[in-house]
Amino acid sequence: MSIKTDGILLDVDGTLWDSTGIVSKVWTRAVRENGCPDMTVTAEMLQALFGRTMDVIAENLLPELTKAQRDRIMEVCCVYEKQALEQMGAQEDLPEMEPEALPACRICYPGVQATIRELSKRVPVFIVSNCQSGYIELFLEKTGLGPYVTDFECFGDTGKNKGDNIRLLADRNGLKAPVYVGDTQGDADAAAQAGVPFIYASYGFGTADHMDAEISNFAELITTIG
């Protein structure tokens, strides 16, 4: 199935990259330093939680704590996460990248950088995530994809849920037929709330029970977008 669109809106975690291996280590450090000395945060735990807003993640991860305690720990988690991702090295010689192309990012899913660069020649590319402020900017910096992404929005900047942010970004950019690409039921629900078609990335973190199209690898967007 080919979907006609004037704007591709992308989720980040579970759709463009998997940062949970790195993030789980530093979040474990953050929670242990701030009142939970026996707790271990695993990549699997984060894969089940990423895609939700940060306050919901905190409630699920630290249900026994007060909101003030959760907020403090999540603040430290985000600081440590940013530091770890900034220090992340690159993986050299990814097979889909030409030598002169973008700096390879070792936690991106295969084909992400080359595909976004190619798609941006045909239609504007955007990002909408439930992440904290600064996370999308860091993604763009580490992948070199800043020049290929027209605009972005996130929960950390607006305090709005993903469905609202999809609609906000679409309206801000005058999109008449946007499409959203994500990997979870929450992404599917957000697209439905915003009234836009949903493309399900089945290789990601979650499942979805309704979609307009499905991709098993990111490069399939080239043929899925008409």
* Number of E-state strands: 6
The strand line-up of the biggest sheet is 3-2-1-4-5-6
- Straight-line N-to-C gap: 9 Å
Number of helices: 10
Q: Give the biggest beta sheet.
A: 6 strands, parallel
Oligomer: single chain
Fraction of residues in helices?
A: 40-55%
Low-confidence stretches: 90-101
Helix and strand pattern: EHHHHHEHEHHEHEEH
What does it look like?
- It is a single chain.
- The protein is an alpha/beta fold and 226 residues long.
- The chain is 42% helix and 11% strand.
- It contains 10 helices and 6 strands; from the N terminus they run βαααααβαβααβαββα.
- It has a 6-stranded parallel β-sheet with strand order 3-2-1-4-5-6.
- Helix 6 links the parallel strand 2 (125-129) and strand 3.
- Helix 1 (20-33) crosses helix 2 (43-49), helix 3 (54-61) crosses helix 4 and helix 8 (162-172) crosses helix 9.
- The longest helix has 20 residues, at 67-86.
- It is globular and about 50 Å long.
- It starts with 6 loop residues before the first strand and ends with a helix.
Keywords:
single chain, alpha/beta, 11% strand, globular
Give a concise summary.
The chain is an alpha/beta fold and 226 residues long. The protein has helices at 20-33, 43-49, 54-61, 67-86, 112-119, 135-143, 155-158, 162-172, 185-194, 221-224, and strands at 7-10, 125-129, 151-154, 178-182, 198-201, 213-215.
What does the secondary structure layout of this molecule look like, with pairings?
Blueprint lengths: L6 E4 L9 H14 L9 H7 L4 H8 L5 H20 L25 H8 L5 E5 L5 H9 L7 E4 H4 L3 H11 L5 E5 L2 H10 L3 E4 L11 E3 L5 H4 L2
Parallel strand pairs: 1-2, 1-4, 2-3, 4-5, 5-6
Helix pairs in contact: 1-2, 1-4, 3-4, 8-9
